[in-house]
Write a structure and sequence with these properties.
TSCPD_dom; RNR_NrdJ/NrdZ; alpha/beta; RdRp_reductase_class-2; cobalamin; oxidoreductase; three-stranded antiparallel beta sheet
């Protein structure tokens, strides 16, 4: 790889004197052009356009953000524009201080980096600094990479310039330290970030205090921290703060730690069944403890070997190291698996593996991680992140041959690592201790997104040797290039302060990375050139590191890339596979459509299919959402199109094997949850945890479908429409003269059958009418015949039907039962009633819309989607001329009648309320196609169903995440 100084598509920043010299001539980097052209600013090479950003809450139709006339390149998607405008533009909306253009946002960040680089002697000349600024701006403008969210929030503003999203704290066995933990964690949450720590230094409840009494133990102190995290919502936003709590497996309180969330899940179920609102974000969920943290047990090799051999394992006192008790290792390990199977916690971290790859062991062990588990380093430290969009480096020549552009990838990695290191020079930190440690070790976390899309586009199954080889090669090249640049920077501006003490260990870890690279298996024409470039990079790392040392103790991680993944228009986040083959896409000017992933035709072309075949297969996917039985597609190619959800899903071990393929080439770890089907057993979870250790991963978390109460239930739709047999409304045993007279319905009566979903629970409602005088009976079908819910719905149907036939006005039922809150609740599949607080709430809103006159239901605040849109457009819900015929139907009932006539023709009903519900994200679209509900919470900001991103959840609608950014 020789330096290239000409052409807009090659170049980069290199230490003066050429690659690998670490030269100091000019005391700075000579920066070359990669993408930019001399004399032309990157902004002048794109087409800009003005757009209006209006973001609504699908639950109630309210506008939660609006800014009109923002300026973006025409190539940016609607979603990316919306998220960047609402999340990252600074200044109060409606004031002159508010940013209105992507140019302002990028300039605010990039110019700050350039100025700091010049101030701290990173560049050989002002010309090099200008090229650095232009190259960085180009890469951000064209969505080639992105910094993590705190950079966009804070850099270049008057507030503290925090650039890190990941923090690790520490706590000792003293009340002063415990109270400091509460305070420091709260300050980090207030700033919008997350933190993790290890509680194992706190003595157990089985040990004595100096006064003679029993210690409280770490689990008791977790309660106070959990309450604090629930109160201090992250960054003042609607999501809870993100935190990680770790406990060593040899701590005497480890069993109590394992069981904390299991017991709370039982409490949630009991309270939910009693009618309390226990949904995620519900009013009553705050009464449950330990819900604001991810819990992980830190296991060591001694314990894992004891599990394999069936040996006993010692739990040790914190202060003396003496054995408090011995336990059966397998039994303890199974308790971990049982708890994870029941509620997804605790996860597992492999202590010896983590510290085997530790570059700074002389300064302390790695004992904890950030909330998403990708950053693992010293206590009281932080890491700032940036992620590359891998699809930007996939090249296709005129003959259709694909290649990964290793040369350009190397240049961009060097550029990004340089910028990330510069940021530590000016960054602010939430605590003094974190600032000290971060400046002394300069931990960075470069990573990537869109791996799943890249693998599919290149014809590789996610769970395949070829897919893992390409992922490993790219990861190795990224980290090797990062450490080479770190060594070059050390030759110019000096190594990190802690390097001298840790030089031997740091270089040993570099040797381990290089050996893993050499031992990796090469598979095909795509990964082999990448491995070759990675091998060269690691050779340079060993040579330059021995000469100059390193500027950074850590270089790479694989983060969730939630919000910034949407900013870069990535199809997949972090190391995750594709969610599904058909995606939801917002359109400029409003509206949306579903599209087959662009990666699918690329994959088919790579696999050798002809254009006509590709067209037929894509059409099949568009109709069915999967490739099963697609015309002309060979069955051996099905696996290429396996996704995280859908007809063909990737096996749990497929996820673990992919993590193992990338892990040897990362400084830190990987944020990822291994999704397991609801049919998984405790033994399956235990096997995943055991294989994760054997395969060399640093941490694992699992989620078994439908295991958590706070998630919507997953249920397949029925293949045939079940019809409820008419409920037997028993006659009163004797007639009392003063009672109202019951008006029975005729044998033949008009009716409307509606299928519905509320918060993941499915059902059918049949509403039958008198031929000329309104609603007369309601039948409800929920759950399986003979279940408690089905029985209660039958009884409720009979009660309502008899009441209607005895003259109780429908309006009375509607006023009494709407807004009643209990589970299941949440999103529905009805475009007129997007959110329901319970099944009963939904039923009577739907009945009001179908049978009550406009004036009556409008007074109750119940409107159709069309009426709400009319109100937004005109300020009035009143029907217009086009609705006159429908209004006349409402007015045709006799005055004083309790209900209006039903719609006379089923065709009219079908036109007014289309069968397919409106989707607002790829997750919701997938639910529609597959007839299931994804195990993901609703976004508390906009009501959209979120999707998993690493160990967190991400909202495609507004960019919110359930964890650290």
């Amino acid at each position: 790889m020789t330096e290239t100084t000409s052409g807009p598509a090659r170049g980069g920043s290199r230490a003066k004197g050429g690659k690998g010299t670490g030269g100091k001539a000019g005391k700075g980097l000579r920066v070359e052009r990669v993408h930019t052209t001399p004399g032309v600013h990157p902004y002048d090479e794109v087409v800009w356009e003005r757009r209006d950003v209006v973001m609504t809450n699908w639950r109630d139709g309210s506008v939660n953000f609006e800014q009109r006339g923002v300026e973006f390149p025409d190539s940016w998607s609607v979603n990316a524009v919306n998220i960047v405008t609402s999340k990252y533009f600074r200044g109060a909306v409606g004031t002159p201080q508010r940013e209105t253009s992507l140019k302002q946002l990028i300039d605010r960040v990039v110019r700050t980096y350039r100025e700091a680089g010049e101030k701290h002697d990173y560049f050989a000349s002002p010309a090099d600094a200008e090229i650095f600024e232009h190259e960085l701006a180009y890469a951000l403008l064209h969505q080639i990479f992105s910094f993590n969210s705190p950079v966009w929030f804070n850099v270049g503003t008057a507030q503290p310039q925090q650039v890190s999203a990941c923090f690790i704290l520490s706590v000792d066995d003293s009340m002063e330290s415990i109270l400091d933990w509460y305070k420091e964690e709260g300050m980090i949450f207030k700033g919008g970030s997350g933190a993790g720590l290890n509680l194992s230094r706190i003595r157990s409840s089985k040990e004595l205090l100096s006064s003679g009494g029993n210690a409280s133990g770490p689990v008791s102190f977790m309660r106070g921290a959990d309450a604090s995290a629930g109160t201090i919502k992250s960054g003042g936003a609607t999501r809870r703060a993100a935190k990680m709590v770790v406990l060593d497996v040899d701590h005497p309180d480890v069993e109590a730690f394992i069981e904390t969330k299991v017991k709370e899940e039982e409490k949630i179920r009991a309270l939910r069944d009693a009618g309390f609102d226990m949904d995620l974000g519900g009013d009553d969920i705050t009464s449950v403890q330990y819900q604001n943290a991810n819990n992980s047990v830190r296991v060591n090799d001694t314990f894992m070997r004891a599990v394999e051999n069936g040996d006993r394992f010692a739990l040790k006192a914190r202060l003396t190291g003496e054995t408090v008790e011995e336990v059966d290792a397998r039994a303890l390990f199974r308790k971990m698996a049982e708890a994870a199977h029941a509620c997804a916690d605790p996860g597992i971290q492999y202590d010896d593996t983590i510290n085997h790859w530790h570059t700074s062991p002389e300064s302390g062990r790695i004992s904890a991680s950030n909330p998403c588990s990708e950053y693992m380093h010293l206590d009281n430290s932080s890491c700032n992140l940036a992620s590359l969009n891998l699809m930007k480096f996939l090249s296709d020549d005129d003959e259709g041959h694909q290649s990964f552009d290793t040369e350009r990838f190397i240049k961009v990695v060097e550029l990004v690592i340089t910028a990330m290191d510069i940021s530590i020079c000016f960054a602010d930190f939430p605590t003094h201790k974190i600032g000290e440690t971060t400046r002394a070790f300069r931990q960075l976390g470069i990573g990537y997104a869109n791996l799943g899309a890249l693998l599919m586009a290149t014809g590789h199954a996610y769970d395949s040797d070829g897919g893992r080889a390409l992922a490993g090669a790219i990861t190795s090249l990224m980290t090797g290039t990062s450490y080479r640049r770190s060594a070059e920077l050390a030759g110019i501006v000096g190594p990190y302060e802690g390097y001298a003490r840790n030089a031997e260990a740091h270089n040993r870890v570099m040797e381990q990375h290089a050996q893993a690279n050499d031992a990796a298996r090469r598979m095909d024409d795509l990964d082999t050139p990448v491995w070759a470039a990675a091998t060269e990079a690691w050779q340079d790392v060993l040579r330059l590191g021995a000469k100059n040392g390193f500027r950074n103790a850590q270089a790479s991680v694989l983060a969730p890339t939630g919000t910034i993944g949407l900013m870069m228009d990535c199809d997949t986040t972090g190391i995750e596979p594709d969610l599904a083959l058909v995606k939801f896409k917002k359109l400029v000017g409003g509206g949306s459509m579903q599209i087959v992933n662009n990666t699918v035709p690329k994959a088919l072309k790579r696999l050798g299919y002809q254009p006509e075949q590709i067209e037929a297969i894509v059409a099949h996917i568009a109709e069915h959402g999967n490739v099963v039985d697609a015309p002309g597609l060979r069955t051996e190619h099905y696996e290429v199109f396996d996704c995280a959800m859908g007809e063909r899903t990737i096996s749990p071990m497929g996820h673990v094997r992919m993590m193992a393929a990338a892990q040897p080439f990362l400084s830190g770890a990987i944020s990822k949850t291994v999704n397991m089907p609801s049919t998984s057993t405790v033994d399956d979870v235990a096997e995943i945890y055991l294989q994760g250790w054997k395969l060399g991963t640093k941490a694992l978390a699992v989620y078994v479908e439908n295991s958590k109460v706070g998630q919507p239930l997953s249920a397949k739709k029925t293949t045939t429409q079940e019809k409820e047999a008419p409920a037997a409304a028993a006659e009163p045993e004797k007639v009392v003269e003063y009672r109202p007279v019951r008006k029975r319905l005729p044998k033949g009566r008009p009716g409307i059958t509606t299928s519905f979903t509320v918060g993941g629970a499915e059902g059918y409602m049949t509403a039958n009418s008198y031929p000329d005088d309104g609603l007369g009976e309601v039948f409800l079908k929920m759950s399986k015949q003979g279940s408690t819910l089905a029985g209660m719905m039958d009884a409720f149907s009979i009660a309502v039907s008899v009441g209607l036939q005895y003259g109780v006005p429908l309006e009375t039922y509607v006023s009494k039962f709407t807004n009643m809150r209990f589970e299941p609740a949440g999103m529905t599949d009805d475009q007129d009633v997007r959110m329901a607080q319970s099944i009963v709430d939904y039923i009577f809103r739907r009945l009001a819309l179908d049978f009550l006159p406009f004036e009556t239901r409008s007074a109750l605040g119940i409107h159709t989607a069309a009426e709400r849109q009319r109100h937004l457009d005109t300020g009035s819900y009143e029907p217009v001329e086009d609705d006159l015929d429908i209004e006349a139907l409402s007015q045709s009932a006799p005055r004083g009648a309790d209900t209006s006539p039903p719609r006379p023709e089923p065709e009219v009903a079908a036109e007014e309320r289309p069968a397919p519900r409106e989707a607002h994200s790829s997750t919701e679209l997938l639910e529609m196609q597959l007839g299931l509900n994804a195990d993901a919470p609703l976004c508390l900001s906009c009501g959209t169903k979120m999707r998993r991103a690493g160990s967190c959840y991400l909202c495609e609608g507004c960019g919110s995440t359930s964890g650290c950014s």
